[in-house]
Specification:
19% of the residues lie in helices and 30% in strands. It has 290 residues and is an alpha+beta fold. The longest helix is centred in the middle third of the chain and has 12 residues. The relative contact order is 0.12.
């Protein structure tokens, strides 16, 4: 069976006793064993057994008749390399990381090797399972919690769902935010859902007409901060989704200037007060814009 190598997917029903994963894939496509193993390590293989479908990385896992293998190969996706995340704190049951620009919070059927969860799993010692309990946009940077047990994942997820924590963001926006009310509370709906954000001016760069603003949100709608900034005609610098204004040279050379800089909460596992902050050198800076 001759399949183009750029992008394809396979769904293979296992009908033979003692068959192997590599053997089944070898019969279905022309990839080399090295290519197959790399793709599997990067999250391209799934196994359906009974009613359960899970990502599979163990190429020597024994197969059963009636299993189904799902192989999703995208050469472009699999060739991507993640930027390095920075460990802020390891509390065993969960860890706190600085997620860089371009790193995903969650994978797709095609791979998960560029996600913060996979990075945490493979860069902690000892290695532990990793569970996402909240997300940051691919283009955003900042603090993210990763749970390392199902108990911790349930507890931390519930904390985020109930908004029992303080999340502080720093953004750089176009315009002089000093001209807005302080604090500047924005409540326009996002995608038809109620949303509330509180913007507070921190600094202004007259040269580029940009402002550094602190944001605290009461709700967690998708792209909420970016939508609210654009709603007052002061979009976040580098936001190519909601439109940019100002110096085009800035937009071409700078990533999205939105960073989750601090997390404050009472740990649902230990009842201890916990506070984490992004290192100063990774904070959004007006000076970095030139």
């Amino acid at each position: 069976m001759n399949i183009a190598l750029h992008k394809f997917e396979l769904h293979i029903d296992v009908n033979t006793e003692n068959s192997s994963i590599i053997g089944e894939l070898n019969q279905a496509c022309s990839l080399t064993n090295a290519q197959l193993k790399q793709a599997i390590q990067r999250g391209a293989l799934w196994l359906t057994r009974g009613k359960s479908t899970q990502r599979l990385r163990r190429i020597k896992k024994p197969l059963q008749v009636t299993d189904t293998l799902h192989f999703y190969y995208d050469e472009q996706v699999l060739s991507q390399q993640p930027n390095e995340a920075l460990l802020i704190n390891d509390d065993v049951d969960y860890s706190v990381w600085y997620k860089p620009y371009g790193m995903l919070s969650q994978g797709s059927k095609w791979s998960d090797h560029c996600t913060i969860a996979r990075w945490a799993q493979t860069h902690l010692s000892p290695e532990r399972p990793a569970f996402i309990v909240h997300r940051l946009d691919r283009a955003a940077t900042g603090l993210i919690l990763i749970a390392h047990s199902k108990k911790a994942a349930r507890a931390l997820s519930a904390m985020f769902e109930k908004h029992d924590l303080e999340k502080i963001y720093h953004i750089i926006i176009h315009g002089d935010h000093r001209l807005r009310p302080q604090p500047d509370t924005l409540t326009c709906d996002v995608d038809g859902k109620s949303a509330s954000s509180h913007f507070s001016h921190l600094a202004y760069n007259e040269k580029n007409n940009t402002s550094l603003v602190q944001v605290i949100i009461d709700t967690g709608r998708k792209h909420q901060i970016r939508s609210h900034a654009a709603s007052i005609n002061m979009p976040v610098v580098g936001d190519r989704l909601h439109g940019e204004v100002g110096d085009a040279s800035i937009e071409e050379s700078i990533n999205l200037q939105l960073c989750a800089v601090a997390l404050n909460f009472i740990c649902p596992l230990t009842a201890e007060q916990r506070s984490f902050k992004v290192p100063e050198h990774l904070m959004p800076s007006l000076n970095a814009l030139g």
